[in-house]
Amino acid sequence: MNPSAPRPQRKIIHVDMDAFYASVEQRDNPDLRGKPIAVGGSAQRGVVAAASYEARTFGVRSAMPSITAKRKCSELLFVKPRFDVYRTVSQQIQAIFRRYTALVEPLSLDEAYLDVSEDRERVGSATETAERIRREIFEEVGLTASAGVSYNKFLAKVASDQNKPNGLCVIRPHEGAAFAAGLPARRFFGVGPKTAQRMAALGIHSGADLRAQSLDFLQQHFGKSALYLYRASRGEDFREVRPNRERKSIGGERTYSTDLKHSQELRAALVDIIDLVWRRIEARTARGRTVTLKIKFSDFRQITRARSVHSCIDSLEGFSQIAHALLETVLPVERGVRLIGLTLSSLESSDAPTSSAEPATKALTQEKFSF
């Protein structure tokens, strides 16, 4: 694209299922409906993989140690995860997405970006398209979804979280800059607790505060994230929805507010990371041969351990076994652990090809399709 040419205006939807794992369990077991449940872990050990909204009102969250969750909610019910069921439900949901566009970029089993700039089903607006998708998910799958509609990926994703659960939020082009300015700094991608503290020390608390800074200032203090922060604070994001983007690796990590020191704590925390990464692997229908474990200690020293196998890892059990074996090579730890990460690489993707190039070109010229 000619850099001096005007950028086309996209219509992007971000769909995020509401408490996906927990909602599937409540759908399939009437005895769990309306009750606080945690998927994963147990009353004595482990980590919560997902919490129902009833549990969230007590402060129960994913990645929380089970014993802490039980302390917060004495009536909490623990449910064993059923990943095969979640994957099947996710495939049903993605089939609904593809009725409206070939440009679907899954982020995990329970969320995805959709570029609906081409009104393939002659719906008339991106907002109505999102409403139809949410309605069809509920009617056909029995679950609720929240959606954000906007002209770029950043705003669509933030919008999908605005009216959860079972909500819709639309941010139109003339609203984007003001919306981004009103966001807390923590709502910008990559701004975790530590970065938020550094921002606060610099007097940056909101998108408006970020927008007031020069790009040079942001580069000085936030390095590679500077350009993203500069643009996002102005409501700008030029990334395309990429259904077939090639990945060299798929991974995930968690930073803990309290350092993990004991072997059992680390083993339990690893279960959550395994689940997080495997969901992303399944969403991409990718397989790989190399698993890498990353550990960052309380003094910020970092180590990695990796293991490669001859054939692709094609099951959660196989992935989990290698991850736990890698962790055992570093146990016991001499100092606290503040971050754990896992990555699968040497990927062989089985994504089916889609004819995305032509619809994308058409999509960006359809000005009659409104928000």
TrEMBL record:
Domain UmuC: where? Answer: 12-192
Q: Which SUPFAM superfamilies match?
A: DNA/RNA polymerases, Lesion bypass DNA polymerase (Y-family), little finger domain
Known EC number(s)?
A: 2.7.7.7
Q: Which domain of life is it from?
A: Bacteria
Query: Which GO BP terms apply?
Result: DNA repair; DNA-templated DNA replication; error-prone translesion synthesis; SOS response
Classify the main location: cytoplasm
Q: Where in the cell is it found?
A: Cytoplasm
Q: How does this protein assemble? A: Monomer.
State the similarity comment: Belongs to the DNA polymerase type-Y family.
Please state what the protein is called: DNA polymerase IV
* Annotated organism of origin: Luminiphilus syltensis NOR5-1B
